[in-house]
Write a structure and sequence with these properties.
Layout lengths: L6 H33 L4 E4 L19 H4 L1 E5 L6 H10 L7 H9 L3 E8 L4 E11 L4 E9 L8 H15 L4 E4 L6 H5 L19
Parallel strand pairs: 5-6
Antiparallel strand pairs: 1-2, 2-3, 3-4, 4-5
Amino acid sequence: MAGEFYPNQISISEKFNTLLKKKTDLETSINLQHQNIDQNPQKWSKYDDVITTNISSNNFNIPLATHQQLEQFIFSTDINFDLNQLDKLFEAVSWMTRDHENMKIALKHSFLVVTLWFVTPTQKQLIGFTRAVSDHVYNATLWDVVIHPNFQNQGLGKSLIQYTLEQLQLQHIENITLFAGSKAVNFYHNLGFITDPNGIKGMFWVSP
């Protein structure tokens, strides 16, 4: 009979309304994220398995299908981010945290800062970081390369370095160096870095 609902039908209707509300909430959250990205398109790039976009990319179409599809990794070159997130990232890999005022100065005077964020409809977590210092013409050195342990062995460290190299090459920096621990040497070899090129050794002078 038209207009009548049996108990099981009412239950289905309630579930449908609940799903519809969740969909609306997700759309609202994503729209807010897109507004942030659209306001600073030069600072954000989307990660899609292998980096193919450049720093000016603003292609951020996200399908509303499954929760997994709503998760994404985003690179940023904006130095103005929550340093408490950087503290958590450093602590996750057993690095010492750094004074925020000093870190702000270090970021300001770095030639390039790259952060990698894991973004869902409910949170944005800093999971990767590196920065480069440079003479702005010939040379650059990478420092503080880090990926959160929960996101290691997924190709994200490789993509972080590839993205950073790409941005440095866009600035015509061709001689790029870094310092690697013994366990990371093969990782960087696979990305094209050479150990002791032409017999040149890296050397440190540390204040007594």
